[in-house]
Amino acid sequence: MKLQAWALAGAVVVGTFVSGVAGANSDKAAKHAGKATAKVVDAARIQAADTEPGSWMSTGRTYGEQRFSPLTQINADNVGKLGLAWTYRLDVDRATEGTPIVVDGIMYVTSAFSIVTALDPVSGKQLWKYDPKVSRDRDRDGCCDVANRGVAVWQGRVYVGAYDGRLIALDAKTGRKVWITDTVIDHNRSYTVTGAPRIVKGRVIIGNGGAELGVRGYVSAYDAKTGKLDWRFFTVPGDPKLPPENKAMEMAQKTWFGDTYWKQGGGGTPWDSMAYDPDLDLLYVGTGNGSMWNRGVRSEDHGDNLFLSSIVALKPETGEYVWHYQTTPGDSWDYTATQSIILADLTINGEVRKVLMQAPKNAFFYVIDRKTGELLSAEKYVNANWASKVDLKTGRPVESASADWSQKAQLVIPGPLGGHNWQPMSFSPQTGLVYIPTQDAPAVYTPNKDAKYGGKGTWNLGMMPISLPEDPAQLKPLQDMYKGHLVAWDPVAQKAVWTQDYVTIWNGGTLATAGNLVFQGTADGRFVAYAADKGTKLWETAANSGVMAGPISYEINGEQYVTVLAGWGGAFPLALGALSAPAKVKPEARVLTYKIGASGSLPPPNLTPVKQPEPPALIADAATVDAGRDLYNSYCGMCHGPSAMSGGVIPDLRYLTPEKHAMFAGILAGAYARKGMPAFADVLKPADVEAIHQYLIKRAQDLKKELAATPVAATQ
Ligand code: CA
Hints:
binds calcium ion; 5-stranded mixed beta sheet; disordered N terminus; Cytochrome Bc1 Complex, Chain D, domain 2; Methanol Dehydrogenase, Chain A; 4-stranded antiparallel beta sheet
């Protein structure tokens, strides 16, 4: 093992670990790749993706990220004969958000904790597996589960961004490590990587997450061959005491006020969406919310705070700023613009326009000229009360008074889960429709004007902790408000053409195909095909788990397949899952692959009801329980669920066994760190831990009464 390390400007040290054996092999592979006969993914091949429709070479299939398969063997006439060809059980039953890649006879999938697995796409047989061994107690460093959304393949290598911020290059055939680079500039802050890398002009482009926990967002480009940092674009300004780092930061800094944003990180993390237009040679990056959420605390309650919640167009060779469009100026609602970016050519008012489309969390569907950044149109794709419309002259939203929670609590639609989250949308050039997984997910924002940055691994929103009603009768109306939809959206007319409704939110990403089909998994555990033009449901099958990920389609030896990753997790199940229809199935993460005429079957779903162990008697006084409630909602609720109601992925603490009650303080001190339960000794004193424990005993007693009143099967 040879260690190479070099210092970069700004005293950022990036270590590159090159394995001697794998390095030598990769050099040979690189030479091999240079020959005309070598079959590897490169720019020419991705740009000509439509000439090999059997492959799915990059996360959105093409650089334009339409998630449209030109394959037609599976179509609206025969989709009813679709059956399960094979399944592969993934390692971690947590956030399963990845889009597979299929190219040159290998399928690459990722699971939670950034584990990469190569499979035979015909049989599902495992070819190799690479576990980057992300420390299992990293949950505290991210907002929304230990997700990974997929790999990139390029010149015989596979690239994955690990949850802990490492960018890793693997040999595509063997899974052997070629290089590792650390993309995190400050390990005293909670940075994570969950998005799929994109590769443009030999550069691996990767962003990061962490804006809930107080970080400064940036997107970086690394040399695909060596892992060396090529350029970095920060999405928000740096230290206001120092001169801006470049012209873009000079522009941005004028839109921020005070210096608290710098202590809080600023945010703007580009944690998911990107797209690339080879003709215009522009890379598009979607940026995230502010750190803190509350602009009143973050930026003296004014300023647009560039480049939060924006689409930024950059030169892919230099990272140089070209244009930006900010969807939510001065964002205070976690309205990220990190949702899918799709490029298409649309005929608008008789003229063919090169557009970029996005349905960010803020509920408006944007059509933007992707050469100039000019806003062409914006309409609501789902109900929203925070703004009445977007003014096309100024490009700015017309905000409602009710959206301003800087002084008092407000019910805002949508809330931080958004009208559409990371679940990828797709576009069919045949129907001209965009298929958006949308949701009604309002939230109450309550300001905390005294909020201060609390250090690594703590949430920094500038609002009071999220809580839910502990009385089931009060919870029910909230559950009834949380509904999901699949909306087929006409981006030219800016209106819905058809809609399918779901019992709960957080349904899966979509795939459109030339067979006049749209595929989508559902939160209630199904995988469904609709007619792309009319929305008629044509086929569905049980997935035995909630499904969130985006499906793909590919063809090998003349047979077309459809694949989706089943599995549950992410922001909603962890932080507000109690608002979903009660989880009846224990989530299990699998690769599911279908083809016409196949008749495979899944193992029976895990319906084992969990019996509530007898909770200890509540001995604490009301003041201790109240203190425990606040502490629980501040430090525990974003994973175990506010008010001790889990969404079914992370254990429901109302079901603790007597043994776990007995070792409660030890668990919070790190006894289960290897199992994924981080230590909290740095932020919780023994008296705090005891108050949280007493609150949980109170909630366990509440549940005992509820179960006695309604003796249905208890679920966890
Ligand atoms: Ca966020």
